[in-house]
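[scheduler] slot 2 assigned
[scheduler] job type: sequence-to-structure, two independent chains
[scheduler] chain ordering preserved from manifest
[runner] begin chain α
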Amino acid sequence: MKHLLTLLLVGVLAACGGSSSPLSISFSPASLSLAMQVGQSANTGFSFTNTSKQSLSYTLGVPSTVDWLQVSSGASGMVNANATQAVMLSVTCPAAPSNLSTKLSVKAGGLSKDLALSLSCTTNPPPPSTITSVSVTPNSAMLNAGQILSLTALVQGSGTFDPSVTWASSAACKASVDANGTVTGISGGGVTLTITATSKADPSKSAAVTLTINGPVSVPIGPGGGC
């Protein structure tokens, strides 16, 4: 009887959300470490992947006592299972040399997981910046002619760097992309093309999205007949 009561109690706790298992997400990079000059501001970012089997509605928590860090985009939203969410941050070094640290908490379903962030503010020139990778969310997509799709690029590296990218379409007459990563489907027919985001700080680093455009085929009038 005692064993039966124990099993019943465990079942009730599980049904009420009493599990203490961690939130099933992974961070990229696993932590953030920045070095900047006093008074300098910079943008940086990270991404996290929902490794659970269901969609998550999340919020990003920043301690109220941290006044040198702000979330520029990706502060809250919905992340599908196995999908990746990019988060952009704005960081400003205080007026005096200091070593600062905090934790950013991704919270979902009453659970949370922390990302450690450290900031070294000095009066010495910061170390040279290095771009390590560029990623784009989503990394593949399908849309109809006439529809639009917003892409998000995340540039990762060390030091202080420009996180912006340039966008390009491999077939601009089939799908165009503007400076903000907004793609517009123009001509369909099941054509497949690529949209590329290239780091402005290091043009050797880029990422491509495979894009399929469905719908009617539009044939431009004039010599050449299209691309």
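[runner] end chain α
[runner] begin chain β
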Amino acid sequence: MKLIKKGEGQEPKQAKRHFAQSGITKVSAAEGSQRLHVSVSHFLPNGGAEMYASPTERVYYGLSGVLMVKGKQGDEYLLEPGDTLYLPPGEERSIETVGTEPATMLVVIVNLD
């Protein structure tokens, strides 16, 4: 077991294909995890991520603010505090902050290898 306290984790960084975003990794291979990656991702107003797909399975959990997650086929999901969005491997999506408040979500990624 390992406890990661509030304020602990890897140094904040912007994820690839993201903008006006900063993420703090809490659990990853660096902490000994074999398949799991957990981070807290903060988005400024007008922040988000480009449309892209990932080979990993992931879950977004809204913590604060509002994010719009759009799929390649035109589907749209408002992610608000307490909402959970599941993305299967290979699902294309984009992300954008809605409104003038920053938004934060918990990101859980499962590597399938």
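[runner] end chain β
[qc] chain β: The longest strand covers residues 36-52.
[scheduler] slot 2 released
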